[in-house]
């Protein structure tokens, strides 16, 4: 349910509730086959792989687990180097703390807020083993340039597609653009399955087989068989399991059938949810176009933004902070995502300091602002958001939009 304390709340769910989902839940309640059987899970994996254009999709019980398992496929060794974006949620990079590797943070492009390929090349060394990137907010990263560098220097690329379901890069879907990709079905995503869930996509058969083994432990027993009746105890029998020697280890991270069934039902609605996000983003763009001191994140012409987040950048910190307060007073919930990862305590402990990624740092500390943009907003809430944003910006600009071609001068010191 949406937060009633704000007239325009931040999205707690990103998928749309439909009668199809309710029907799926009712069917599962009356299901006679064992729910762990995996029939729905396998169907969902095939459908998801086809939807993103990948050969394999391996489902797991959360997006965090998907990242952990995907990073295991990189076969990192002590002394290896991994390049990563600082503009992401901490979960993207958290698994790297379990490996004895050096993480080199690559600064972001000031327009797309994705990892900047122009900065990336200078960070590559003979020890570079992998690159972790995110399509921030649903804006696809410049994957052609990234993959060209990866192939030239021989390192692997893992794309975190947590924001990118429904996006397009040169006609292709994130999840099929790198060596490995991960997705999350947690709350606020375009597909949520009403809970937790994650997927890993790849084209390599050997990786898919390894991921299947990691996902679930091997059974320790075979089917029990009947034994002869013990002497002196007529009419009794018992079953003794045959022990399996060398059962494979696993993490027991299998996606529940309920989540898979709901995920399958929601796949068809992803484009509708993303279309609603894009429509609202277009209206927000129209407002910002009248106030040149606030610039939206933009995707290149060859990409299609999914707008998991609608992000804009203010000219300076005082303006950003005043706008946040003005919108909050008007009942619009604002969140800022995400704090630069290299400045979190766990990474500072490993030697990372302020100044390492100046563009990402300036974006967060001085410019960054996320506006509500999700399909659960009603038409009335969307209209109110547009009016509130326009009113707040006009207030900061001295009461009126800035005419085209005229610099904004009434918005406080730089």
List the helices and strands and how they pair.
Blueprint: H1 19-29, H2 39-52, E1 56-60, H3 63-72, E2 81-84, H4 90-93, E3 102-105, H5 117-123, E4 128-134, H6 143-153, E5 156-160, E6 168-169, E7 180-184, E8 198-202, H7 205-215, E9 225-226, E10 239-240, H8 257-267, H9 270-288, E11 294-296, E12 303-304, E13 310-314, H10 317-329, H11 345-348, H12 358-367, E14 368-371, H13 379-396
Parallel strand pairs: 2-3, 2-4, 4-5, 5-7
Antiparallel strand pairs: 1-8, 6-12, 7-8, 9-10, 11-13, 13-14
Task: Please tell me about this protein's structure.
By secondary structure, this protein is of the alpha/beta class. It has two domains: 19-219 and 248-269, 3-Layer(aba) Sandwich (Aspartate Aminotransferase, domain 2); 271-396, Aspartate Aminotransferase, domain 1 (Alpha-Beta Complex). Helices cover 35% and strands 13% of the residues. The protein has 13 helices and 14 strands. It has helices spanning 19-29, 39-52, 63-72, 90-93, 117-123, 143-153, 205-215, 257-267, 270-288, 317-329, 345-348, 358-367, 379-396; strands at 56-60, 81-84, 102-105, 128-134, 156-160, 168-169, 180-184, 198-202, 225-226, 239-240, 294-296, 303-304, 310-314, 368-371. Strands 1-8-7-5-4-2-3 form a seven-stranded mixed beta sheet, sandwiched between helices. Strands 11-13-14 form a three-stranded antiparallel beta sheet. Strands 6-12 form a two-stranded antiparallel ribbon. Helix 6 (143-153) links the parallel strand 4 (128-134) and strand 5 (156-160). Helix 1 runs antiparallel to helix 8 (257-267), helix 9 packs parallel to helix 13 and helix 10 packs across helix 13. The chain starts with 18 loop residues before the first helix and ends in an 18-residue tail after the last helix. Residues 220-226, 235-247 and 404-414 have low confidence and may be disordered.
